[in-house]
Design brief:
Strand content of chain B: under 5%
Oligomer: heterodimer
Radius of gyration of chain A: 22 Å
Shape of chain B: globular
CATH superfamily of the largest domain in chain A: Response regulator
CATH class of the largest domain in chain A: Alpha Beta
CATH topology of chain B: ABC transporter involved in vitamin B12 uptake, BtuC
CATH architecture of chain B: Orthogonal Bundle
CATH topology of the largest domain in chain A: Rossmann fold
Number of helices of chain B: 14
Helix content of chain B: over 70%
Largest interface: A-B, 41 and 46 residues
CATH architecture of the largest domain in chain A: 3-Layer(aba) Sandwich
Helix content of chain A: 40-55%
Radius of gyration of chain B: 20 Å
Distance between the termini of chain A: 16 Å
Chain lengths: 340, 339
């Protein structure tokens, strides 16, 4: 980290002066200022990273962003909302806009509600790139709609992740049986897309019956109750897809409680710290790791390219790694477990 | 309204049944409707299970364990909440105090390493840390006359932030300790809940402390005139609520081998709902722990049962909401009847 904060010191007074001028001007001629773009110091750009919520996934993203920042002399600003909520994220976003970074990397917590605040950033001349989640439809630079202004969307293709989960689970249960998804809450774009991809892919397996999706509200206790309820009704349950961390933890416990670890296959999304142990002791059969570090890395790289006037891809999918007992000890797989 | 409830609440609260000479069915239904409702729910799922699956819903160890575990988490919070609500207060902070405790339990247990006796250190320490927000809540409400809704809402935010800070950089702290795992395995979380429930039920219904609690909730001024140290009593009760939130957090960490700052967030509303369904009035003076237990069981049976009969997830939210409203309506109706 020091390697890129040091050179930053030399430009600090200039930057501070610019900020002071901005503040003074802002007080007198707000509208004029809003129209004028921020003047980027392209050798030492300032990039702000604003993820969705405090969790290992986003810390891993931050580590990837730090790596890219060190390579490109970027001063990286970083703040985390305490919960997944518009009312938590927007004030932090506004504070970032007031600091006038050259670019903002953001994981919008709501596809619609963040359009307006991010338009403000764009109008202030700040380049906007969304990571992990998107605004509007997620299709940018199309020239249509009010939410196409971000330059790039760097994320996992969650629907593809759901398909991978379906294929992996289908293979594990031999192409026949009963499965269902235990998800976070209805209306969250990423987990909804995982469920959708899972259900689409499962249509290719006529002998697998997919039960309706249940929602844990991100409460492991509720997930246990849900899965227990399904197992009480369907003794032949053969697999469960936990679409996020705490849903997965609850599912694992319910299966363990019923003495069916290994019989009922469990595939979970995300590779939280400790997942390697859960896989080794058989509590979890498969984990689909996203690559948040790559999201942070490419996010910063694209931001720098955009600041320096280069064109950037409108969309970047960062891919997945499927972990199981056979590969979890390999260093090139283990590195994708998220870190705090 | 407040006076009426305190007057009718006192004899009801002490638990001795003032059996009417002629059986008043309306009054009986009014008094025992949560039991009745729980029985009807179980009967409904039992019939469904017998018809569709030819086996029992209720007399099934796995189902019972699932429901008991699901009920035990909000029940731990609801024990403390019952005391608070009887004193005409409310504690909105218990959910995040539970989260804070869950994280503390994980962190303190990590200090003890893999020794199964690490719990001897982490449990008392966690409870000690967690009663601090309770003591502050109590002081705000009792001494500085801050409305409970507002004071504990402030603490809701403080405990939430403290929980995240205690968790360090991540949101969850994983912990791998045989003692903790033992505590969280099988029926143990349920046993802990039942033992604590029995002790607190005895305290509330059979001791002076319990009588004082009803007196403070029924009419604070006359309680003070009768020589009860109202201020101290309320502070103790808010500390009690926080201590039970702490136990809830410890058990959560034990069950999932990870403490999360958001562990108790969805549990707060269920804990209040359990107390209200159980017959406590938010105006104070009435309520008891057996009612709260029935309330917690009703919520757990609905949530488990609707999944069991394969009803769409969204109906679960609606069902629990309807039960809360109906239970308050029945309560109002009872007040009017003077039951």
């Amino acid at each position: 980290m020091n390697s890129f904060t040091k050179p930053q010191c030399t430009t600090h007074p200039a930057r501070a002066r610019r900020r002071l001028i901005n503040a003074v001007m802002g007080a007198f001629m707000l509208s004029a200022l809003a129209a004028s773009p921020a003047h980027a110091d392209t050798d030492h750009p300032v990039v702000a990273l604003l993820p969705g919520v405090v969790d290992p996934f986003y810390f891993t993203m931050y580590h990837g962003a730090q790596k890219a920042a060190a390579e490109d002399n970027v001063q990286l600003l970083f703040q985390l909302p305490k919960s997944w909520n518009t009312t938590e994220q927007v004030p932090i976003l506004k504070a970032f806009i007031a600091k006038r970074p050259d670019a903002i990397l953001v994981s919008p917590v709501d596809a619609q509600q963040l359009i307006e605040p991010l338009t403000e950033a764009k109008n202030a001349g700040i380049k906007v790139i969304t990571v992990d989640t998107y605004i509007g439809t997620g299709r940018y630079q199309t020239g249509s709609g009010n939410a196409d202004f971000p330059l790039s969307f760097v994320a996992s293709d969650n629907r593809e992740g759901g398909r991978i989960a379906a294929r992996t689970l289908a293979k594990a249960i031999g192409g026949k049986g009963i499965v269902f998804c235990e998800s976070l809450k209805p209306g969250v774009s990423s987990t909804d897309a995982r469920v959708q991809g899972f259900q689409e892919e499962m249509k290719k397996y006529p002998n697998i019956k997919v039960l309706p999706t249940l929602y844990s509200e991100d409460d492991a206790n509720k997930a246990v109750s849900d899965v227990s309820g399904v197992m009480a009704r369907e003794p032949g349950l053969s697999g469960v897809f936990g679409t996020n961390t705490f849903s997965g933890k609850g599912v694992a416990q319910a299966i363990h409680m019923a003495g069916k670890s290994g019989t009922v296959k469990l595939i979970v999304f995300d590779a939280v710290p400790g997942i390697d142990k859960d896989i080794k002791i058989g509590l979890v059969d498969y984990a689909i790791a996203q690559r948040p570090a790559d999201m942070g890395y490419y996010g910063v790289k694209y931001a720098v390219d955009a600041i320096r006037g280069k064109s950037v891809p409108k969309e970047k999918s960062t891919g997945f790694v499927v972990m199981d007992k056979s590969n979890i000890d390999n260093a090139d797989v283990k590195q994708y477990i998220y870190s705090n | 309204m407040q006076k009426a409830s305190s007057l009718s609440g006192q004899p009801r609260a002490t638990g001795t049944s003032s059996a009417p000479r002629t059986i008043d069915y309306k009054a009986l239904v009014g008094r025992f409707w949560p039991w009745l409702f729980l029985a009807v729910l179980c009967l409904f799922f039992e019939i469904w299970s017998q018809v569709i699956q030819q086996r029992s819903f209720v007399f099934n160890a796995y189902n019972l364990q699932s429901i008991a575990l699901a009920a035990s988490a909000p029940m731990l919070l609801a024990i403390g909440q019952t005391f608070v609500i009887i004193t005409a207060g409310i504690d909105l902070s218990v959910g995040f105090v539970m989260g804070l405790a869950a994280v503390c339990a994980a962190q303190f247990t990590l200090i003890g390493g893999s020794s199964p006796w690490a719990l001897g250190l982490s449990v008392p320490l966690t409870i000690a840390v967690s009663v601090i927000p309770g003591a502050i809540n109590g002081t705000l409400v009792a001494r500085y006359r801050v409305p409970a809704f507002i004071g504990t809402l402030g603490m809701y935010g403080i405990a939430r932030g403290a929980g995240f800070l205690a968790a360090g950089s991540g949101m969850t702290v994983s912990v791998d300790n045989p003692g903790l795992q033992w505590l969280g395995s099988g029926w143990n979380p349920v046993i802990v809940t039942v033992v604590l429930l029995a002790v607190m039920h005895f305290i509330l219904s059979r001791t002076r402390f319990g009588q004082y609690t009803y007196a403070v909730g029924g009419n604070e001024q006359s309680a003070a005139r009768a020589g009860i140290n109202v201020r101290r009593h309320k502070i103790v009760i808010y500390m009690l609520a926080a201590a039970f939130a702490a136990v809830g957090g410890i058990v959560y960490t034990a069950r999932f081998s990870a403490g999360s700052a958001t562990a108790g967030e969805p549990m707060l509303l269920n804990s209040i709902a359990a107390v209200v369904i159980g017959g406590a009035s938010l105006f104070g003076g009435t309520g008891n722990l057996i009612g709260t237990l029935i309330g917690a069981l009703i919520i757990a049976v609905i949530e488990f049962g609707l999944v069991f009969i394969n009803v769409d997830a969204f109906w679960q939210f609606i069902a629990v909401g309807v039960v809360i409203i109906v239970s308050v309506l029945i309560d109002q109706y009872k007040e009017r009847l003077g039951v």
